[in-house]
Design goal:
This protein is an all-beta fold. The protein starts with a strand and ends with a strand. The protein contains no helices and 16 strands. A 6-stranded antiparallel β-sheet has the order 1-6-2-3-4-5, with no helix packed on it.
Length: about 190
Amino acid sequence: MATTADIKNGLTIVFNDDLYKIVEFLHVKPGKGAAFVRTKLKGITNGKSFEYTFQSGAKLEIARIEHRPYQYLYKDDMGYNFMHSETYEQIAIEESLIEGVEFLMPEQEVDIVFHSDTETALYCELPQNVVLEVTYTEPGLKGDTASSTATKPATLETGVEIRVPLFIKIGEKIKVDTREKSYVERAK
């Protein structure tokens, strides 16, 4: 058993008989009364977020999870198929467990998070940034806008559409943030 002193961002705990990830927390010591820890929790199985306040020193059950390296192979009627990078074992995961699935490319390296006690896949994490090629975008005209942060829609090789700066052309490779689903920079 752990206490509120062990809380950190990204920690997975068992709360109300379900698994929750601590997204953010704040330790508060008011001038009057007992200290407490205000947290924002995100449900791993249901994806719902909510805030909860723990009294300082409260007992928490930390869930044992493992990040395992996998490589994306293909999609079929069973789901998305991945191969373990070291043991070559293959597993299929349903689309709902993959955040940012629209950025998934064949042979891409990902981390699949497993619950250690039950050996079940909880979710699949894509890298924070991926490099993709722009397959279609309208040409950006200089002087088209009053601000310097103008953007235009661009379709990427996976079929997803994001907003990019006006200077991006068809065929360029760009770095995309998979969590924000946004343009980061040109790929080097």
